[in-house]
Design a protein that fits this description.
alpha+beta, 4-stranded antiparallel β-sheet
Length: 194
Amino acid sequence: MNPNEAQQRAQSELQSGESLYWTGTADPVRASVAALPAALFGIPFAGFALFWITQAYHATSAMSKSAHNSFVSGFRVFPLFGLPFLFVGLGIILAPLWAFLKGGNTVYAVTNQRIMIISGGTTRSVKSITPADILSIDHRERPDGSGDIVIQTTGLVRSNNNLATPVKVALFGVQNVKQVAQQVMTLHTQRPAA
């Protein structure tokens, strides 16, 4: 997506009284690299599911050869119970590919009222981060001046042990990351006092 298309997409989402400070596109390669740890977890997950399916198939095949009754033949479908786990594992393995494809259609924008992450092609999704949502901002700069901005928000994600952790939102592959981080910091200072 070229810069003009990104700007048009961001301007189409502006509300009345809102002015656009900056627009940029996501770097699909950086987004896919960020998804690599998940893909590494998916390898043993899918591998175990495949192992379970093959072992269940061999066990049910041996059972059906030794006994020919309807109860034992009902176990022939038993290996199919592993397919959902195999598909989930393959989906996790392909997380970098999904992140790359999504990153190619993602636009970032900073306005005087919020940060927008606009993703999708014909069907768009807009995630807005207002100054009240921002807790902290970190940025990582590479030698070419590009980098990533990580925004810690007030949103919480609860885990199984009832610990709540703040939601982090990342802008991957931002050109002139220092300037954009400064604009986000300026927006953060507009946060109302609690």
